[in-house]
Design a protein that fits this description.
Helix content: over 70%
Number of strands: 0
Bound molecules: phenylalanine
Structural class: mainly alpha
Order of helices and strands: HHHHHHHHHHHHHHHHHH
Shape: globular
Largest sheet: none
Number of helices: 18
């Protein structure tokens, strides 16, 4: 590692910048698009309850673990493990994270592209007097438009990543994140005042435990990990840009709360509308795109609401795609020693190529199946439900059993400057609770053990 010049590494400029960028990574399509669709497919309330449990017993500790690894090593995911565990195979966790970044960004950019189409549709009043399901189906099954938007979105992502950490990522997320939050709150207020809203709230908040299977539990774990951006090193990478005086535990807790709040608010925005309009909560990945335009048309000022909403959704997606691409770019720059510019271009182009296959899963390649799933669904399922839980498992094991208490205590307390109230609890969770919980869920749902 001698050839890495730490003094010149970019870092986040302010405390708020750290929170904004990390929250920007966490809050995205995972909250607004994926959470409602998976919750809908998984039966609502009971799923939501388990998801919330996982956020706090696994999500927060893993996030904190990633920050610790990143800030300690001051390197990309792969390099961080190499540096902290020289000569040991832990770098494979970093490799897995890089693969996950490619796969997630590939399918994520499909949906991110959809948001751009919907901005245009919103502006041009494209939902007026239309059946929104038909509008959605015909768009997603066309060949070129979705690819065009996907590539445009990847271009936007690359443009922000190119500007670097402080002037790119931090500058934009600092303005965009607070704006996003305010807009979502406004939308929620509108949604819960719809006639028939109560049924949707009941679906979301009243747990029906008969709906729980190990698969639902795994979906909840996968969704918690996906939504918090944990398990693949995005937050190791961001952690490496966090300065020494930042309070990591406080940042992890604040970001997790913000992320969870936004997911729940997204649910509050979607499900009352689903039920009020007699739509299907199990509509799958198209849920948000089918339900919301319908809702907008029934709202006074819906034209403006729809424009604002889809811009907001695209922005939320962008701050997440930036963090995914940054994982790859940081690796290319620090390990393969290529310029940031080249790294960004190569990363964005190769991911776009993979991404086009995901987008085509809705048109040309819709009958092409891997284990019975389209390429899109397979990437979505495998990353969220396998890569991220497995990654999270090894990250907590690495911290709990390998890195050493002293190093962790140093990072969490900023070398003794901060009081650590929950250190014992944190260590207990990462040594035992989190890994055992992940292993149990995982092995049960893939059928290796049966409870
Ligand atoms: N958390 C992001 C979202 O909710 C997605 C993401 C996953 C980003 C993993 C980075 C890493 O949209």
């Amino acid at each position: 590692m001698a050839n890495v010049d730490f003094s010149n590494r970019d870092s986040f400029g302010s405390k708020f910048g750290v929170i904004a960028a990390t929250a920007g990574s966490a809050v995205g399509l995972g909250n607004i698009w994926r959470f409602p669709y998976v919750a809908g497919e998984s039966g609502g309330g009971a799923f939501v309850l388990i998801y919330l449990g996982f956020i706090f017993i696994i999500g927060v500790p893993v996030m904190l673990s990633e920050f610790t690894i990143g800030r300690r090593a001051k390197l990309n995911t792969f390099g961080a493990f190499k540096k902290l565990a020289p000569g040991k195979p832990w770098f494979l966790v970093g490799v897995m994270g890089l693969v996950a970044a490619f796969l997630i960004l590939a399918f994520y950019s499909t949906i991110a592209g959809w948001t751009l189409e919907y901005i245009v549709k919103a502006f041009s009043n494209g939902f007026e007097n239309q059946n929104t399901t038909v509008v959605f189906e015909s768009f997603k099954s066309s060949t070129f438009r979705p690819i065009f938007w996907q590539i445009t979105f990847m271009g936007l992502t690359a443009w922000i990543v190119l500007a670097g950490v402080k002037d790119g990522i931090e500058k934009y997320t600092k303005i965009l994140m607070p704006l996003l939050f305010i807009l979502i709150v406004v939308m929620c207020i509108r949604a819960v005042t719809l006639p028939g809203a109560a049924k949707g709230l009941e679906f979301l908040f009243k747990p029906d435990f008969s709906k729980i299977t190990w698969n639902v539990v795994l979906e909840a774990l996968g969704q918690a990990a996906f939504s918090l951006s944990i398990g693949m090193g995005a937050l190791i990478t961001y952690g490496s840009y966090i300065r020494k005086d930042n309070n990591l535990p406080v940042t992890a807790i604040q970001v997790s709360i913000a992320d969870t709040l936004i997911a729940i608010l997204a649910g509050v925005m979607i499900f009352p509308a689903v039920f009020a309009l007699g739509m299907d909560p199990q509509a799958g990945p198209g849920l948000v795109f089918q339900v919301l335009p319908e809702l907008f048309m029934k709202m006074p000022g819906g034209y403006y609401f729809s424009i604002v909403f889809f811009i907001l959704l695209a922005v939320a997606a962008l701050t997440s795609t930036v963090s995914l691409l940054e994982v790859v770019v940081a690796y290319f720059v620090e390990e393969l020693r290529i310029s940031r510019r080249k790294a960004t271009i190569i990363g964005a182009i190769s991911i776009s190529l993979l991404g086009v296959l995901c987008t085509l899963s809705y048109s040309e390649l819709k009958d092409f199946k891997i284990f019975g799933q389209t390429i899109f669904d397979a990437f979505d399922y495998v990353t969220a439900n396998i890569f991220l839980p497995v990654g999270a498992f090894f990250i907590v094991i690495f911290l709990g059993w390998f890195l050493g208490k002293k190093v962790i205590a140093d990072e969490l307390s900023n070398e003794g400057a901060l009081k650590m109230k929950f250190f014992g609890l944190f260590m207990f969770i990462i040594k035992y609770i989190a890994p055992i919980a992940i292993a149990l869920v995982f092995l049960n749902s893939i059928g290796i053990i049966k409870f």
